[in-house]
Design a protein that fits this description.
The protein has 290 residues and is an alpha/beta fold. It has a single domain, classed as 3-Layer(aba) Sandwich (Rossmann fold), CATH 3.40.50.1820. It is built from eleven helices and eight strands. Helix 6 links the parallel strand 5 and strand 6.
Length: 290
């Protein structure tokens, strides 16, 4: 049996005894969400087989008579190589409880595809939402985004300053258990699978670029996550502050890398409340000051 010190800090299964049970809970919770919420599923945002998204609508009581509802986009994790949108429908429970429309994205997986395509896909999906969500009752100006793990990494590329996209603007952003420095992954168990090149690491490490100061950020990490996740969250938070951004750094109590993601779908949990706050703040920060 491996000692704690000899375990790869990025191999989540080694650090989360209930890993398989939580994955099962992702699936079961998502199945229940799809049964109870009105939705459109497998809506194409591009031509690729993975370029689809699901849209979940709040019940009439949560709309409170509003015409243009806030919109929240969630990007799933899985180290860019596993899971799909279908495993994370349950995030819509918290989003719709906040009176917002939930959009859960899918994207192609590595190593069959490369990081550049994945980032291009989440950008094109967000641009699709900006164009199309108004006809579905959403307010494209009140757009927030969240992501977990690799999804947090991908979400950060919706708010970078280097390649600022002209077709959308994200008002608020919640990133949970994210990966903001790709270099250590080249020395992890993931490298034989992902085959990250030095060029990919240099180009797609969020810590190496500036981020939009007109977005409000909320950076979270589970209390029981391994040291690199805490370190990267703190460094990314500081990087945002250095960029002149508004950013808050928080720890999700009594959670690990997997259970923190499960808690995101519970509006009563600490991180669920933070997600609801992120959505509400998107309405106040929906249009840039002149």
């Amino acid at each position: 049996m491996l000692s704690e010190a000899s375990k790869d800090p990025f191999r989540t299964r080694d650090h989360v005894a209930e890993f398989d049970d939580v994955v099962d809970a992702f699936g079961e919770s998502s199945r229940q969400t799809r049964q109870k919420l009105r939705s459109e599923t497998d809506v194409p945002y591009g031509d690729g087989p993975a370029e689809k998204l699901d849209i979940f609508y709040p019940p009439p009581a949560a709309r409170q008579g509003r015409a243009g509802l806030p919109v929240h986009i969630f990007i799933h994790g899985g180290y860019w190589r596993m899971f799909s949108k279908d495993d994370f429908s349950y995030i819509a429970d918290t989003v719709t409880a906040a009176g917002a429309i939930a959009v859960i994205l899918d994207y192609a997986l590595m190593p069959t595809q490369r990081m550049a395509l994945l980032i291009d896909q989440v950008r094109r999906a967000t641009a699709w939402v900006a164009r199309e969500i108004g006809s579905r009752g959403g307010d494209p100006f009140s757009t927030s985004v969240s992501g977990h793990s690799a999804g947090a990494h991908l979400a950060s590329w919706l708010v970078d300053q280097r390649d600022a996209h002209p077709d959308y603007r994200v008002a608020t952003c919640l990133l949970l258990g994210g990966l903001y420095d790709l270099r250590p992954l080249q020395r992890s168990f993931l490298q034989p699978d992902l085959a990250l090149t030095d060029e990919e690491v240099d180009r797609w490490t969020p810590l190496t670029v500036t981020h939009r100061a007109d977005c409000i950020y909320s950076i979270h990490v589970g209390e029981y996550e391994t040291t690199p996740f805490h370190d990267q969250a703190a460094r990314f938070h500081q990087s945002l502050l250095n960029d002149g951004c508004t950013s808050a750094l928080g720890t999700v109590p009594a959670t690990n890398h997997m259970t923190s993601a499960l808690s995101l779908g519970n509006p009563a949990s600490d991180v669920g409340k933070s997600l609801m706050s992120t959505i509400h703040k998107s309405q106040a920060n929906c249009r840039p000051s002149k």
